[in-house]
Here is the input.
Amino acid sequence: MDRSIQKIFQRAVSDEYAGRTFFVFLTLHALMWSLVPGLTRHELDSDSMMHFAWGQEWQWSYSLHPPLVPWVVAGFLKIFGINNLSYVVLAQVNIALALTAIWFLARQFVSARVALTAVCLLEFVPYYSFLSQRFNHSAMLISLWALTTLFAYFALHRQRLSDWIVLGLLAVASMLCKYYSVTLLVAIGLVFVLTARGRATWRTLGPYVAVALFTVAMALHVQHVILNKVGTIEHIGDYFNFSSLAWRWPPVKFLLAQLVYALPAFIVFVLAIPGDQSQHRWYHLFKKVSWQESHSLIYMVTFFPLLATAVPGLLLGVDISSRWGGPLLGMLGLLLIFQYPTHLSVVHCRRVVAGAFVWVVLLPVAILTAHGLGWVVDEAKAFPGKELAGTITKSWHTAHGTPLRLVAGGLVAPDSIAFHSPDHPSVLQHLNFKRSPWVERAEIDEHGIAVVCLLTDTACLEKGTKLFPGYHWIDLSVNGVGSRLAPVKATAFRYIFVAPGVYGRAQ
Here is the structure.
């Protein structure tokens, strides 16, 4: 490395300037990882559209997941604009919150320059780089688990009632994001039971307030789900198949994936630490666990959820996605630092931070180049959703002279129309009233409905014909103007328009 660049980074990682460097890194990270999806995706993934379609209805729960992610999506986009760019930015706001929480947590243990190192190591973890482009339930857990762990530490060590209240609210938010958060909350609970400092907190008011907040909020949520027969809790059963040998593989794959995802950060750390203390070889990181009582929370929130996912999943046969591990590796940088037998020098920190700054620029540029050369093609992102929404909305206005209030269909199309249409209609998802309780038959009679199916979606076409007999499907081919980085694929659809005031008379 050139001496002038070395001096710049040496100053950047000093305790005096490390906080400013962290802010610069955070800004650069958000910019680069917003550029990649912003320039290469003509359309967002189907889950993103579904989250908006759910969220704009402001339900207390949904058929597949608890309500927090749809609420956040709808709220953020209604404030900053309902478009692809706002969704891309939301994904990076989520990661920025996670990195900020981890920075403040690391500062409780180490100096500013070492905390900066712990955060920069996460740039080499895929969940925080190219996998951060998506915002879904597992992705939001990355920030929620980091924040929950931070305030669990505060509650444990500062004993302020305000910290306990925030911890209780974050625990509720984590569960209302994804029930998988129970593994994190059990891990935190074990720290408050198994450590001396943790047990001492039960002699104060704080933990009882936090538990009461959590219990009341979750009881109200569960009551709503059960009384209204929402499929949120029942959906958990879809992941289990005790008799299937094939479903034993996903837990193994999950565990292996976390090891693979952690490997780049581990390699960078090992390459950065040789020097005057080179006698401490990389395998010293595994010689013993640095299980100081103050460190126990960090180890517990990492390894308990990991094992509580993989082991029961293997025994019971659970269809686990490797991306469930997104929130698990947030403490990786801190754990590597805890395990290193000596203090990190300025040189060690400088190497990691410089590598992270290079990587946060180099990897996005490489991805953009691959898209430009045509090496990476994602047909799902080439879906002409905006053009479809514009065509259907314009045709509806021409035919009926009223706003498009309701749209129905199967895969992708109706959610995409809800997102891109200026009318933002409610969606009868999969033509299923149970899955879309916000749509009632009386509303279809009052406002009419557009039913749009992919030409290849035979299930949607069959349901549409059965639900709205006597209508003839109209063929529609939609294309759009894309770019070399974000091409558009011509896509065939079929649609019918059920006019206002007609559906009720046909029943």
